[in-house]
Amino acid sequence: MKNDLLTGKPVKSIVLFALPIMASSMLQYNYNLVDNIIVGRFVGTDALAAVGSVGAINSFIIGTALGLTSGFTIPVAQNFGAGNKEKMNKYAANSISLALFIGVIIVVLAHFLSKPLLRLIDTPENIIEMSSSYVNVLYYAVPIQMSLNNFNALSRAVGESKKPLYFLIVSVFVNLGLDLLFVGYFKWGVIGAAWATAIAQLCAAVLACLDIIKYNKHLSITLKDLKLDWRIAIRQLKLGIPISLQFTITSIGSMTLQTAVNGFGSNVIAGLTAAGRVEQLTNIPMSGLGVGTMTFVSQNYGAGHYDRIIKSVKKIFYLDIGVSIICSLILALIGPSVVTWFMSDYNTDIMFAAKHYLTAIAQCYSLVAVLFVFRNTLQGLGFTYANAIAGAGELFGRLAVALVLTPYLGFNAICYAGPVAWLLADIPLVIIYLHKQKNFKQLGQKI
Hints:
This protein has helices at residues 10-42, 45-53, 55-72, 74-82, 85-120, 125-139, 142-157, 163-185, 189-215, 230-262, 266-303, 306-333, 335-339, 348-363, 366-381, 385-409, 411-415, 417-444. With 447 residues, the protein is an all-alpha fold.
């Protein structure tokens, strides 16, 4: 049954739309989870630390790239809601070409930056070569990842959230099989894990491409349409760049924080890597609801259903707070047990770091709910500059912890860096949304 975000019951429609997105995120999460578990068990603690140490840099480069595509498809959803098929198809076709074009540029730049960035964040010498080898293979897949993210965003923009899930199911099995083959059998170490991820993403991207170009009933894109139109591209870049800046800015903060983490040694890096994977898992429900809310808001904004947006965002906010409380309990009670999956032998130092981090995050997890609801709502409305402002808040929070508090509070400061960053991002997002809502109320009264 097709889920209708324009006329169905708002919260029910958003939740049903978000469920396949959550499942898709779970499968994407499995790329990293499987890589980390297999690397940690088959290769060792240093290898797990090597994979974890590139997380901030990976987010800086790949997150920046994927942030762009999130903005490219906002006009597609808005024009879908407005019923303007011609403009919708133009924006959709241009997003495909633009994502691939920028992806190729980024992959070239990334290979020049990776090693200097690893040294900049004081990556321990015993893992720097492994870290560099791992991340450089992943960068070959940046154009693939950008295209895959763009194809999936196009599907969701026109109200289809299940197909990306089907494609990812295929890629997860490919990733698992290749991980066991490359790392477990061929003993290629972290490079094998990286190649497994890249090939699996390519499989998903090919399937998603075929669906959008040939089989999607809402979109009609020909090869001629794929010629890059720079007038349209400029509008898409204006929407995508602030979202990309959000990833860039927050990643700079994460890299600065990683510098402080690296000073505590390989065991602590490995512990925080494992705990971070658990945190990512509990992020999935709120992230999925966030993407569902963004699509709902985009389509209804295009259709002029302003009052419907205001009422629904309020209800989704309460739902997200409830979800965050459940996730907090999971982090505190179940999280430490999940961390043991990453170790071949129990390591006291790794478990201490992981438990301490998970406890701190669990105490403040509702701040993440606020972040997802208002950031995605403003993004759906096309006010993507709010993403960059929130990113600046996160950057300031992490810089303050890494440069000011860590020398005095030690590892405790590292554990609370995330909550401080979330709080400083939430404040401007809520203020901007409440300001914009006043205009909605006026428009809603005219419906």
